[in-house]
Amino acid sequence: MPFPKPVFRAHGLGLNLIAAACALAGGASAQTVPAPPAAPVPAPDGAAPQRVEITGERSGGEMQERRQSTVAKTVVGREEIERFGDASLGEVLKRLPGVTLDGAPGRGGNPRLRGLGGGYTQILLDGERVPPGFEIDSIAPDQIERIEILRAPTAETGARAVAGTINIITRESFRKRLNDLRLSLGLEDGRWSPGLSWTRSGSDGALSYTFGANAVQTRFNTHSVSTLEQDVAGVPTLRRQETTDGATERRRLTLNGRLQWKLGEGEAVTLTPFAILSSTDSRRHSTLVQDPAATAPYTQLDGRGESDFNLLRLSAQRTQRLGDGTRLEWRAGAGRWRYEDEVQRVASDLQQDRADITDRSWNASVKASTLLADAHSGVAGLELEGARREEVRSYLTDGQPRFPGYGSALQARSQRVAVYAQDEWEINRHWAAHAGLRWESIETRGAGLDGGQRNRSAVWSPLLHAVWKPDPKQRDQLRMSLTRSYRAPALNSLVGRPLLSVNNSATSPDRTGNPALRPELATGLDLTFERYLPGGGLLSAGVFHRRISDLVRYETLPPAPGGRWVNRPYNVGDATVQGLELEAKVALREFMAQAQAPAVDLRASANFYRSRVESVPGPDNRVEQQPGMTANLGADWTLRALPLKVGGNLHWTPGYVTRLSATETAVQGRKPVFDAYALWTVSPTLGVRLSASNFTSPDYVRGSVYDNGTLYENSRTVSRSYVDWMLRVEMKL
User: Fold this and answer.
1) CA 226 to each of CA 220, 242, 412, 508: distance values in angstroms, whole numbers, following the listed order
2) Measured distance CA(512)–CA(265) in Å, rounded
3) Which residues contact 394 (CB under 8 A, 6 or more apart)?
4) pTM of the predicted structure, to 2 decimals
5) Which CATH architecture has domain 15-732?
6) For residue 167, which of 75, 275, 276 has the smallest C-alpha distance?
7) pLDDT tens per residue across span 282-307
8) Domain definitions of the chain by residue range
9) For the CA atoms of 62, 68, 71, 75, what is the dihedral angle to 10 degrees?
């Protein structure tokens, strides 16, 4: 039965909805008796007065830090990170407001803010950009101290954050000696996955340290059905269905540490090593049914894949205080990761695809912080960064090159210099402002089969943030940001050699880079109203707008006679992105008598997005992979009669259609994901946690359509997902 051609529908975001939401948040009723003012927290020397330094237990401190920050920031602490006992960091992030993942349900994936991925979201690890190709799911949640999310860029954190910044901070050193040991056992579709996590903190004189290790063996099954239908001038020419069953086993060891030597008052040296050792084995069997059968590439296909990923990273930081009170922070780091992969497919012949990719990166920076005048805090800095990627691929059939010339080594490299300055000013009790200016120069060099290319660009990024508190004694405030940001091409998008598809077609093309890519520039406006409730809750409503120039988009062009279909990135012009963001965190005790109210905490968020790419005809000419909306609804209940805490969370992303070009369309199915957990606290040092991730286990649907008026091709893949059960024993020794 042929697939129907997609029907394009426009999805609007009415101004009346935005106004109503802001009015709703602004008019939400608060308690008439104000809470006593929080005791002032001393700001670190050289830092802006609004910043808060919190040590020890962070319970409740995350909300206070968010409230005190001049820049819109969400802080997620240990309690929320470990609430569901997740095996991957991506599963933690997907429950946060405005965060979506690009992977299948229950499989983690790369995080994106406001539905914008692919480099629009800046990912930092301990304040430094993660190396290209780094997967955050390789970090165990047990090794994370907290997560900071900034909705708008700042001069200090960097302007490569069109959608925002996610800063992942690893476990910190504590003076108190502590051992955390966690043993876990997962079950998915009848396959067991054991895991172990250990963290040790302590001190010895001037030295404080934290070491962490996480070892996990993950086993899971896959099942998918892919269909392809092709018409030429309205006449059916090809019908294909491929069923694939597979099994994957992944072994991963993650090591991290933080060592800090105190050299004196306000001076210290900190080393932060980080390492990942990972290997994956996979097996799959495919059955293909095709009409006409005479042209089928195979009927049975057996595949085997082996891959290894190794990453080493070391960062060093030196802080010192000058005589005038200026605080200097010197940082340097270097890292290297290598990915080796071999895939074998056996049908009528033996095909071997091999890849060997090495990425080296380094960075160095210096930052000075000082008090400029009364209520002024200034920061200025210099950053240097370099990265180099080397890639070797080969494609063999029965030991002979399938595509001669594709096995040669290709390279891409980038260098960046940045200078910035910012001033944080507490104007009065009602107003606080944050102004910054950042200049970055980027040089990229990419190589392709048709030669290499060198690009240089420079970006000025003025950044303005402000907070207005109508009544400082109350808990309402309005945040405003006017910023300029950019997205530089990733190194893999500059390497101009195709990654070959097995069954090449218009909807399954080879993918290649483009050494001529230019950076994308974005001008942004953010407005957010926040109301902080006396019991620690929050109501928030915000709108944002981004105007992007030189947008990068992948397009598939018709091949030359006898050639292959190839998908390649291009700078295609301008785009606009805008949205409405709603968030609520409340406890039932906010609305009921505290003695009668059950200890239930509620959280909810809803985000509505609209985008338009001007060079692509509408409707549905949205920015790629951005849904029309996302929503989260969750609750946690601490029982009074038992040492038991239970909770659940529903994350909802509806299906959507994206028009990529005049001839291409992408289809993404809905992703409802429900998670639940129960924590039994046996004693202050022993707890048992049972969790179920992806409890709804929906099918994961993806599709694409190519239609140039003569050739119509429609492909669709439906993948099964599974419930992932996890039993974990948590001990403090």
Assistant:
1) 20, 5, 34, 11
2) 53
3) 352, 353, 354, 401, 406, 407
4) 0.85
5) Beta Barrel (2.40)
6) 75
7) 999 999 999 998 888 889 999 999 99
8) 15-732
9) 0
